Amino acid sequence: MQELSPKWLFLENAAMMVPADQMANPFQHTSLTTEELLMREAIQNSVDERKKDAKGAVKFVVRRKHYFGVDKRTIVEKFDLKSIYQRTKLFPKKYNWLQTEQTCLVHLDNPDVPLPLLILSDHNTNGLGGNWKKSEGNESKFHNLVLSLYNSEKQETSSDFLGSYGVGKMVYALASNIRTIAYYSHFEPSTASNSVNSRFMSTAFFPKHTMNGKDYSGHAFFGTDTGETNYPSKPLENNAADEFIENIGLEKRTKNDFGLTAILLDCDLSPEVCQDACEKFWWPRRFDQHSTDYVELEFFDGERKLQSKDPRNNPEIKPFVDCYSNIKHNTDPAQYERKKIKAKGVNVGTLCLKALSETEDKCYETKNSVALIRNGLVIAFNHDYKYQDETEKENEISTVGVFEASDHAVMDFTLSEPEAHDKWDFNNLRLARHLGKDAKDRVRITHERIKYLFRDFYHSQNNKKRKVNSSGLNFLDDLLGGFFKKRKTGSPAPPKSNPRAFSIQKIGWRSQEENSASDCLDFSVSLVEEVDIAEVNCIVTVTLKVLEDAEGKPGDLIPYKLYDSEGRTLIAESNKFEIELKKSEIQEYHVEAKVNPNWRTRWSISINKNSE
């Protein structure tokens, strides 16, 4: 049966339907640029859809093409852009969603004004199979991406758990000056796809408007007419889809070339800015070419291929790459510190910090920040861990770091992200709704511990530098000391200290809400290797003292509860408790105390051999 010619069909505004122009609202408050949003979202979709039996890595290709003359006329006719231009005359100006005079629509008949298309293609992925007009879980890939409105099916049911809000398609729309995207996909046929293996369809997101007395939501679909109310358009299929792609000057996919090609009409983003965005946020997936997480990237401007970039050659990214390498290889070189972070009994991830050298410490935007990473994507370069009221002093050593979420907690962090996936917010409502209070606490505690470790490392490195600089003045003592006779004193020389038998490691932080606060402490104790005994009975003393209360006066000791390392089993509620230490054994504990948010407090720990 001959396929009908595709045309634009608009959805009438129905009750509870979100107007098309409002679907971009969640992206209004992000600091990410359009190209950063686009590259993050598009590649995230691609890597999540890697074919399990693929022989190679996911390949992602970005190509910009400018259409002139006859080629431009072909695009205008094939996509029926003149009908869109006529429709724009009905759009209310107050929305400012589509400024017609700034788009290609006013130059459709001028062959000398280029019409730019940005083409994003992935390979070795699943493509958009499944039932095209019915959501059947994560298998309805075409429906979920192209036809659904605020569909959260992927968030609720996907075993790969992307955490999508269902508005990722708006990232594509935002990159198009006429808010129009075409989808061409080749996939393995199945019963759900009715044995179809290729599809093509275009969608657009316009302001809501009125025409001939009818209200329209702004959602438009370019396909063949079905005569149905809910799904008025259906995609071109099989040969018809391939022929449409060839008619607009693109190559159809071969038999086993599965994946998605997204075509952004009137998109003037350059391949260079797209490449820079990938380098900034996807570098964790760019090193191990034998890993299934590796992503192969290619960028073209017309037929010109851009030279590949190595993030290790970018001075702003390289310090983070170095930290990430230490996490992956469990190494701790000088000028670095690597710590595993636990929260609510779960290993939530690993933090690696680095002190920048003088040659590295330039005026980079990313210095004194921590790159937060999950699933190979840099969610953010977070600057909030450094004291916000602390001005950078001349010759101060800057710090950078990487925190990589563990597999045990990646779901917590994913659900804490907003639509732009650009931060981890423990107050995100869907986090507690889907995973409960413990997940919310894990994200909150993770931020608190990163902050503590970052500040501690930052100050320790600068204190070391100050000591080294001050020691350079000691030569004056050596030079002038002989001219002065030392005064004799009756004080004996201080006794030599015995080597410490016990090792104590601690991390303290404050968990604060509106009107309450808790001081928390994680600590571990062990016998040092130099001690000749195999085991010993000890008394551990832990105190939390009020240094300044709300009136600025010193206060008493604060009662607390001491738990095991997972914070579940209560061990003691007194300041002292007895333990038995054994060689090569580390014992870990967690302490919590309720405090006044206005108090300044300090934890102290001591350990002594039990005299009894």
Protein traits:
612 residues; alpha+beta; 5-stranded mixed sheet; 25 strands
Brief account:
This protein has 612 residues and is an alpha+beta fold. The chain has helices at residues 34-48, 69-78, 81-88, 141-147, 153-157, 169-175, 239-247, 271-281, 318-329, 410-415, 429-435, 437-471, 474-480; strands at residues 7-12, 58-67, 115-123, 180-186, 198-205, 209-211, 214-225, 233-234, 236-237, 259-265, 295-301, 304-305, 336-343, 346-355, 370-374, 377-382, 399-405, 502-512, 517-527, 535-548, 561-564, 570-572, 576-582, 587-595, 600-609.
What does this entry look like structurally?
The chain is built from 13 helices and 25 strands. With 612 residues, the chain is an alpha+beta fold. Strand 15 and strand 16 (377-382) form a beta hairpin.
Topology readout:
Layout: E1 7-12, H1 34-48, E2 58-67, H2 69-78, H3 81-88, E3 115-123, H4 141-147, H5 153-157, H6 169-175, E4 180-186, E5 198-205, E6 209-211, E7 214-225, E8 233-234, E9 236-237, H7 239-247, E10 259-265, H8 271-281, E11 295-301, E12 304-305, H9 318-329, E13 336-343, E14 346-355, E15 370-374, E16 377-382, E17 399-405, H10 410-415, H11 429-435, H12 437-471, H13 474-480, E18 502-512, E19 517-527, E20 535-548, E21 561-564, E22 570-572, E23 576-582, E24 587-595, E25 600-609
Parallel strand pairs: 2-11, 15-17
Antiparallel strand pairs: 1-7, 2-3, 3-10, 4-5, 4-10, 5-7, 5-9, 6-7, 7-8, 11-12, 13-14, 14-17, 15-16, 18-19, 19-24, 20-23, 20-25, 21-22, 21-24
Parts with pLDDT < 50 across at least 5 consecutive residues: 151-164, 483-488, 494-498
Helicity range: 10-25%
Number of helices: 13
Structural class: alpha+beta
Let me know the average pLDDT. Answer: 86
The radius of gyration is 31 Å
Give the overall shape, derived from the CA principal axes: elongated
Distance between the termini: 95 Å
Biggest β-sheet strands, sense, barrel: 12 strands, mixed
Q: What kind of assembly state do the chains in view correspond to?
A: single chain
Instruction: List how many beta strands DSSP finds.
Output: 25
Beta content comes to: 25-35%
